[in-house]
Amino acid sequence: MKINNLNELNTPCLILDKNLLEKNCSKARKKCDEFNTILRPHVKTPKSIEVAKIALGKDVGPITVSTLEEAEYFASSGFKDITYAVCIIPAKLKRLNYIQLKYNCVIRMVIDSVIVANQIVDYSKLHSANFEILIEIDCGEGRSGLSYQDEKINEISKVFNINHYTKLLGVLAHAGHSYSTNNKKEIISISNIEREQAIASLKNFVNPKNNPPIISIGSTPTMFYAEHLKGITEVRAGIYMFWDLAQTSRGICEIDEIALTVLSSVIGHNQKKGKILIDAGALALSKDISANNFMPEAGYGLVCDPNTALPYEGLNISEVHQEHGSINIDNTSWFDKLPIGSLVRILPNHACLTCAAYSNYNILENGIIVDNWSRTNGW
Amino acid sequence: MKINNLNELNTPCLILDKNLLEKNCSKARKKCDEFNTILRPHVKTPKSIEVAKIALGKDVGPITVSTLEEAEYFASSGFKDITYAVCIIPAKLKRLNYIQLKYNCVIRMVIDSVIVANQIVDYSKLHSANFEILIEIDCGEGRSGLSYQDEKINEISKVFNINHYTKLLGVLAHAGHSYSTNNKKEIISISNIEREQAIASLKNFVNPKNNPPIISIGSTPTMFYAEHLKGITEVRAGIYMFWDLAQTSRGICEIDEIALTVLSSVIGHNQKKGKILIDAGALALSKDISANNFMPEAGYGLVCDPNTALPYEGLNISEVHQEHGSINIDNTSWFDKLPIGSLVRILPNHACLTCAAYSNYNILENGIIVDNWSRTNGW
């Protein structure tokens, strides 16, 4: 099928295939339904209201964000139940509280420090600010969070036991190390540990109001490969909406499920060096090459037919400069197949980073560009 | 000196030291004055009106851009003499011409193809559009451009010989491969070749109007290390305005000349793993690690005292996730020196890519944040 209006777009730009997006989102919702748990989509990947609605399958619902800028953007569009899944610091409480009050929403915050717990309590008393808190549990990634056996979990929960404005709701874990393997058994094992340690971390948790605690886990691989999610109240995942080569390279998705591509134009032929130059470089694609660990042929992205988004065999972006991408070719017939001015679509390594260079998505639906959706960026 | 109002900023954000910026820009202008040539600053680094004015030392003047978005942004602020230094394709002529007409400016375009030359002539006749053109010369980088001996230079110049609307003005070369070495002698040699081949490329150049041709060359290293620039009419360079670790690592600048840093907050202490977590990750810093070729200790950036912007010995960003940066420490005293909530400044690998995640600069002048300058992004 030929997309008749692709050539009306300025290149480089993002193309988001709505049909694939809907399929990907519906699959994740079904998975969480089967596991009898709530999906709280991580909107740090799309940073778009329209995409978040498709991820939820409804107009509003619980979401996860990675910045307060995202929190404000989504809150201003009516999202009321937001988890900010990066550890808070006291300097950010003022803005967080401002967003909560302005938009009548809740932005749950995450902590892993007794000191910060006390600072939150102090702030909440001083400003009569209502806060909801989760303790971050490190289930093996070794980034932020406390070990599930750490006695600080008990200490933190005691800090909130005596305060009226703050509610300690539960725990949050993220098995980000599930991205470091392409072995299904290992991912299953990581998923089991993520679930078990999140639940076990509650042993020393003092829950003043005796409400059932929130146990939030998630990463796209551990969600899709989970054996079960018994005891888990919600799952956070994001990249499944778009997919990308990093996920394909780890066997988590198929190449023809990737909904997000960069549309680019051929701007030059270097016949001496056997290179095709395109107008998508380091800014348009990002310098993330994380797919290459398990897919060394990915380069800075796979070069695809603009209509089908299926890779041209053997063509990748081998080098990037700020605004130039270079495709090394081993057969000069590519110069005829891809004349200067022709379009290609690029499958990105890491959609979250690639998208961040753009302010909007061009929406492809049933073989035609039908719409343009904005996204937010920055902090 | 303590910067008293740093803690009023939302982190992560960009800090631009105006005093250093002015010093860096003045040094480059002086260099071009000594060489008796014109400096045409490449604004793809700052993408900011205020920075461009400082680079020029006056309110308007000749600039180089890397996207038509930049061209439009600068044209809308009164810049009339713009070179778009990435090969044009016919699909972009409409927008280029629109900007020229709307803002009464000239956007010189660059080509390296006979076919595109003919397409430009066809377009210009059909739309009575006035275009100015330079032929790109590849002086050794092996990216875009024609070899200085390529007979296509002659063919292209003949295409424009017979057209009234288009003016072929000269040639443009960019020794981007000067970034691939930290050896001063090699850079001098590359600079000599850039100059010589740019001049030699005019041998077969047909100049219908017998005007002296434009011979535009440039990269920051080849400008500063040039032995002379006799015969060169203008120099394009950009990164010298801000500098970055990639340039420091190649010996082109000193660390205390870098004007651009990322301000970030400590958001966590992972005591088990010996890590300090900050709120500047892959988006806030970019995944460019190009300084590491010659400065393996650079990591994703060097961690600095927030007041002096001088590196803390042995501290770099060793790992990045979308919104997390990790600093591996070998001495737990860093946990005391950098408590949660404290500020650090990060020297970036590649300022052009780091800046692209932000919409503005916080301007530091004489030890205080005094202003906020916007920048453009995207295409």
Summarize the structure.
The structure is a homodimer of 379-residue chains. Chain A has 379 residues and is of the alpha/beta class.
Give a topology summary:
The structure is a homodimer of 379-residue chains.
Chain A: E1 13-17, H1 18-34, E2 38-39, H2 49-56, E3 63-65, H3 68-75, E4 81-84, H4 93-103, E5 106-111, H5 114-127, E6 131-137, H6 152-161, E7 166-173, H7 184-200, E8 214-217, H8 220-224, E9 234-235, H9 245-249, E10 260-270, E11 275-278, H10 282-285, E12 302-304, E13 311-316, E14 319-320, E15 325-328, H11 333-337, E16 343-347, H12 351-355, E17 360-365, E18 368-374
Parallel strand pairs in A: 1-17, 2-9, 3-4, 4-5, 5-6, 6-7, 7-8, 8-9
Antiparallel strand pairs in A: 1-10, 10-11, 10-16, 11-15, 12-13, 12-16, 14-15, 17-18
